[in-house]
Amino acid sequence: MAIFEKRRLWLAVLAALALAFPLLVTNGYYLHMMTISFIWMIAVYGLNLFAGYTGYLSLAHAGFFAIGAYTLGILTVKAGVPFWLAFVSACLLTTLIGALVGLVALRTKEHFFAIYTLCVGYIIYLVIDKWDGLTGGVRGFIGIPAPADIGPLSFQTPVAQYYLLLFFLAAVVFIMYRLVYSLTGRTYIAIRNSEELALTLGISTMKNKLASFVLSVFFTSLAGALYASFIRFLGPDIAYVSVMFDFLTYLLVGGIGTLAGPVVGTLLVTFLSQQLQFLQDYRMLIFGPVLTLLIIFYPHGIAGGFIRFKAKREEARRLKLEANRTVAELAASRQGRSERHVKEG
Amino acid sequence: MLEVANVSVRYGSFTAIRDVTFSVKRGEIAVLLGANGAGKSTLFRTISGLHKPAQGEIRLDGERIDSLPPDRIVQRGVVQCAEGRKLFPRMSVYENLLMGAYVHRKDKEGIRRLIEHVYELFPILRDKRNAPAGSLSGGQQQMLAIGRALMSRPTVLLLDEPSIGLAPLIVEQMFATIKQIHEEGTTILLAEQNAHAALSIAHRGYVFENGTIVASGTAEELLANDDVRKAYIGT
Q1: Cross-chain residue pair A199–B70, CB shorter than 8 Å
Q2: Which fold has domain B1-77+188-235?
Q3: Could you tell me how many CB contacts below 8 A there are between chain A and chain B?
Q4: Hey, which of A4, A229, B38, B44 would disulfide with B34, CB 3.0 to 4.6 Å?
Q5: Contact B86 A187 (CB under 8 A)
């Protein structure tokens, strides 16, 4: 119970910090950075559901992110669809494309799946890059409207947009939390553990993998649509491999297959790379080795390493308790024996 | 009720099981005896649908099940408890049991009752219900694996080497529990190297060597068979 209460306290502190952030930090640049990293976090949560909990590394997620973003752009600018309708449609359309890709991709496993999805991601990039008439090609796509007002709520100012994205992030984290601790989440984890074992328990792995993939694409496309309405300019490079590997870096640093991982990793990496901006591209010289070391020594990232550290401590405490008890019992029985000896003597 | 007819299984060009025919009748305990690598596990995997037979049929109550996917076979009541005590190590004992009830996940009340039943069979699992499965001892893990298989409500339970790597005293308890599970109405197909213990609770046995059946008979017949005694019992 104590652990649960403590966790709740931490969550409350974090939530308060997030809510107060625009008041504490008046620098507009930092506010912008934070808002953008919320978008990355949502995308990484999507990736985490499939790569972290279900155990399949999809490298097409930057592509789905871009499809979400471009669909919103095209629907609002070219087709004149009202913003929130376009927003929902963008997510649904991307999810549908994800389902079609998943139907084929999930016939492969492990690294073949990774390679296949890498190709899918690249094809998405090429389509966006070359289809000038629809996407604007390399020139990019401009004029995407900011989120439309909902009743009295307006999202025109940076602070309002910050809170809108914070709301979406909180919703995504909450849904993930409920999902991971449900039977559905445990089913995904079972598949990650061993697909064969899952099958012998009567789990239809294909159906569950597809469901997980589709959900994962949904969250990432949500991030894409939010990105389009926040940045309001789109270039084909958001579908490029480098964005995919940014997502992956955030996830690996934070902790793959953990709930806190996407938040921790995204915050750390984006802010570190901002601080190291003066090094230009040489900062990769620092990032590369640090990431390598992290993967070697903390394969489960920062959040994963922390969880394991706590579990170990708990285990050690339990063992110590048991040992103490045994020693005490031994001492008591010995004492009993010696008392008997005294009486008999 | 479970019939395996002329089944062969190949891995590429290698034939792991050649033309195997045997059956398990309702309410029986049947045992497959055989050394490591004889093909017992392959046969089990084939019955569970993880491998497709290259030829032959597998029937449950007269209906073919060899073309069904594994999850459908579990729904039909043929449940495997895999060798090597495969559990979900980071899930708790309780969660592992819940996963076993996956095909009956809508029946919350039934699951609650069944978990109680498993706790009665293996009281240690109740004490350890919140411990991660990976922290259990070998014997406890085997109990959990069997308990989890029971959660799928098997009509035929396939037990692959339940005694492997366990201390003699635990092995004895394990076989007593298997007998109890059988008495509660589950048909059991057991793969074992421990021929003496297995035949002492079984009705019928098949001796498996190099992917094919070389001897079969009732438990008494096999126990009296000199070749079997020499090869598997050692007296």
Answers
A1: yes
A2: Rossmann fold (3.40.50)
A3: 55
A4: B38
A5: no
CB contact under 8 A, A193 and B88: yes
Convert the pLDDT of each residue in B2-42 to its tens digit. Answer: 989 888 898 888 888 888 898 899 989 999 988 877 788 88
Closest chain B residue to the Cα of A203, Cα to Cα:
B71
Residue A2: predicted pLDDT: 55
End-to-end CA distance of chain A: 52
DSSP state, residue A79: S
Residue among A234, A230, A218, A236 at smallest CA distance from A45: A218
Taking CB atoms and an 8 Å limit, are A202 and B82 in contact across chains?
A: no
pLDDT for A319 beyond 50: yes
User: The complex's ipTM?
Assistant: 0.85
Every domain of chain B and the residues it spans: 1-77+188-235
Residue A1 contacts B where some CB pair is shorter than 8 Å: no
- Tokens 């394969």 -> residue: A299
Q: Other CB atoms closer than 10 Å to residue B51's CB: what's the count?
A: 19
Q: Which residues contact A248 (CB under 8 A, 6 or more apart)?
A: A47, A51, A59
- How far CA A129 is from CA of A63, A239, A292, B28, in Å, comes to 12, 9, 32, 67
Mean pLDDT over A306-320 rounds to 82
Q: Which of A286-290, A325-329, B173-177 has the highest mean pLDDT?
A: B173-177
Count CB atoms within 10 A of the CB of residue A151.
5
The amino acid at residue A109 is: K
At A300 the three-state DSSP class reads: coil
Annotated domain spans of chain A: 25-299
Q: In this complex, is the C-beta atom of A193 within 8 Å of any C-beta atom belonging to chain B?
A: yes
What's the CATH fold of domain A25-299?
ABC transporter involved in vitamin B12 uptake, BtuC (1.10.3470)
pLDDT tens-digit readout, A223-259: 999 999 999 889 899 999 989 999 999 999 999 999 9
CB within 8 Å: B99 and A190: yes
